[in-house]
Amino acid sequence: MRVRTLLAAISTSLSLTAALAAPSQPAPVANERISVTVEGTGPDVILIPGLASSPEVWAGLASTLRQQHRLHLVQVAGFAGAPAVPAVDGRVVAPVAEAVADYIRSQHLQAPAIIGHSLGGEVALMLGARHPQQAGRLMVVDALPFYTLLINPAATAEAAAPHAVQFRDAMLAAPAEQAEAMQRTAIDRLAKTAAARPAVVEAALRSDRRTVADATYELMTTDLRPELGRIQVPVEVVYAYDPSYGMPAASVDATFRSAYTGTPDIRFKRIDGSFHFVMLDQPQAFTEAVTEFLGRHKL
Hints:
The protein is of the alpha/beta class. Helix content is 42%, strand content 15%.
């Protein structure tokens, strides 16, 4: 079921199987919230992974892009084994967006392309809306500006809060064995490629539970739709579909298009035969979509 699949995407630690392979790895640039590894040369592209993921989620894509682009691979604190830092008033995602904005300024990047998966897509939207002069264009991968719409299309952030509190508290209270079992079950709905699942689960278990729980609560109670009109650069939303969702592709199309109403310059790209980890399940189609996106708007 599509609702359960995407909701699992914001409540489950995410990662992938392959490691980034590069001839040499420069030392990461870090601040409290993020660390960034830079590789390749050319126009700047910032890659932000999802909830509890590592930059390894972009391994296949990076092997192609680094030939002609300078990649900035973001690792969020507390995810996939990176040391955790306290949330800011219970928030994780918004402080990460500010950290990326600070990084863009400190490194003197000129309108980089920003590509974010899941939680990383929320960060990309926040950057585009709250720092409109810093982004060159945005690609949001299988993410919505307000996830609770998947549960209730008429939901508000205020109405979502009680359920989000219960969900966060349940995540924190679950015994280790139960939490691991829940991760494995959820990953089956997030990655269609069975070979990818063990590494995804491993990264989930290495993530800081408090950070993941706080980020999940924030995603469930943050409605970015009122901010979408502030985005001044092209936006492309790439999203997954598979017949096993149990609903027509047209319904998924409608969900995404409706959620992004009010975004000034937006395109949509559906990739079939995939679950939430589009880059794992359909790597060639995903890489082609990104390459076309970058080529359409020259940096």
